[in-house]
Fold this protein.
Amino acid sequence: MVIVVNAETSYWAQWGLAEDPFAQGYDRRFVRLTNSLENALTLLYFTVQRNRGAACVTGETGSGKSTLLHHLKQVLVEEGAQVLAFSLRGLTPVQLLRTILQGLGCPAIADDVQLLRQAVHLELFERAERGPRTILMLDDVDAVEDPAILGLLDELTKARVGSKYLINCILAGGSTLVRNLSIHPEFFTRLAFQVQLAPLTAAEASDLIRDRFAAAGWKGESFPISVEAVELLHQKAAGNPGRICQWLHQAMANELCARAGVVDPFYLYQVFSHGETAA
């Protein structure tokens, strides 16, 4: 597949767009809250607002977990909460505790797990009195390699002052997350909610694409993604929004496709074939 490499004109400008509709990273303007994301957001928000302790959200790569966490974090920060959000991938117990302390604005000089645990709990106890609310938002929990990390999270999520949890924890990961958590029965039973993100419907996939184009400055009359292309994308991606955006990005960056000014199944099959060859 031939990809446009033009130092003067970015691929999206050739489609009449002001910016990249499929840029990496979180941008609230490009977020479309589907029914699945809305339901998940409501349950996770309820967990935090009602001080229910912990909840988890699962879904495959590209299903919208990270988008959901970013959106929830922004909402909570705007309400005055302190949110510590990071990935657990590759972290050791010491790194986890040091990251929490640093997020709370505390020095983390020691490399001893016991001392770090005490420091974290002491800080959380003090914050329980003076606020603001502390929320731990962790991604890639299914990728945890050291079981001691889940043990530390178990301790954190059961620490209370009276009936009030010292910290509320939102966990996100792939389909194995729930199974991994079940190894810690008490932790597992304390989860207020277990939310699984559903794939997009065909209508939601179409709305997602149109919303992203609108946010990127599309003002044309004839939409450049054919109905057949949207249907094919939805079917091939099994409703996964991440894959839909990735494949559409690749098709639009195809020089021949850009010259034609339309994305149709012909160019998409080139993208699919290229991906299979690369794999």
About this structure: The two ends are 14 Å apart (CA to CA). The first strand starts at residue 54 and ends at 58. Residues 52 and 253 are 46 Å apart (CA to CA).
